[in-house]
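hi! just following up on the protien thing from before. the input was this:
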Amino acid sequence: MTPLQRIRENPDEVRATLEARGFKAPLDRIIELDAQVRKLLSESETLKAERNRASKGGPPSDAVKARMRELGDRIKTIDAELGTLQAERDAALLWIPNVIDPRVPRGKDEHDNRVVRKDEPRKLPVAPRPHWEIGEALGILDIPRGTKLSGSRFYVLRGAGAALQRGLIAWMIDLKLRAGFTEIYPPFVTKRETLIATGQLPHFDDNLYRDEDDDIWLVPTAEPQLVALHRDETLDGASLPRTYVAYTACFRREHMSAGRDVRGIKRGHEFDKVEMVVHCAPEDAPKWLDRITELAVEVLDLLELPVRVTERCTGDLGFNTLRGFDIDAWGPASNEWLEVSSASDCGPFQAERANIKFRREPGGKAEYVHTLNASGLALPRLMSAIMENYQIPDGSLAIPEVVRSYMGGRAKIAPGEFAL
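and the predicted 3d structure came back as:
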C-alpha cells in the first residue's frame, strides 16, 4: 500500500508511525492537498460528463455553444490547478517513511534495541592499543597524509594495510558468491531519480555529495544501484529471488557527527563497503532478512571477532526499513561495539517508488517485489576491529587466517616493514 493510500485509509496510523520513528513529515499539508486534488478531480469529471452529453444532443444552440466554451475554460483552469497541487502533494509524500513491522520492539533510539546475540570480548595478550596507534606504528595507516590530500576524515592505507582491505573485500564477495549471490560492479555515481526511487532522497539529502548541474550524485552505498537495477521492470516470478552483491566506495557527508569519533577511521566521508540486496516475493522476505543477517554475522564469526546482533527498535529504524538488525564487532581499545552492518527488510516500499513488479505466472497479476539489503560488511570499522583484536605483544599485527591466501600467504605485519 502506497503512502497516499495509507494516509487516505488511516491518517492517524501514519501519524503514529511518524511519532514512533521520531520523523517529521508534512502530513497535515498532504491531507489538505489531497482533499483539494480530489475535489477538483470530481468537479472536472462532472464537467466533462456534462460536455459529453451536450456533444451528443444534435446541432448545438448558441446557448449550448456558450456553455461548452464555459466548460472548456473551467476544465483547463482545473487541469492547471491540479498539476500544481498534485506536484506539491507528491513531493511531500516522499517524506513519508515505511510502515513498522508489528514485531519491532518499541523504543526511542539505539539504546532501546533488543539484544539478540552478544559474545564475550576476546582476551588479548596485550593491553589494547587503538587502531590508529597500531596502524601508524606499523606504517599501514596514514591519517595526516590523508588529511593533507583531501581534508579531515580522510586517510591513506599503505602497503599491507591496503592489501588487507583489498583482501577482505575480495574474500567477503567470494563468501556471497558461494552463497548464491550474483556479483555486480555498478557505477559509483548515480542520478537524482535513482535516489528518489529507492528512498535516499529527499530524506538523506544533507548527507549526499552531488554535482547538481550534471545530476551526478556519489553513491552513499551500493544499495540504490542494486535496487534500481530493475526499476520500471516486471520480473518473471520464477526468476526470484534476485540476490546481488557489490563492492563500492561510499560517500557521505559527516557534518552531522562533528566532534564525534574524531580519532581514527570510524567515521569518514569516504569508505569501502560490500553490499547485499535481495528482490524477492513478499512471503519470502522474512526468511531473507534472517539469511542476510546470518551472512553478515558469518564474516565476523570466520574472522573470530566478537559479535553483537541487535534488533532495531521503532526509533532506530531507517527511513526505508520496516524491520531490521544491526551487526557489531567488538573494539577492545575503544571499549565499544562497532556497527559493521545493518540488515533491513524494506517490504514493498522501495519497489512501489521504483515500480519494480513481478508476475507469479505469465499473464498473472503484477505484484510489487519486496527488497532487502545488508552490508556485507563495511570496511573501516571492520579494519579497526581487526587491528585492535589481532595485536601481538611484539608490536606485530596478526593477519586473520581466512584472508591470508588473499595476501600472498602473509601471516602478520611486523614493525618496520612499512615505515612512514
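Residues 191 and 213 are 11 Å apart (CA to CA).
The two ends are 57 Å apart (CA to CA).
cheers
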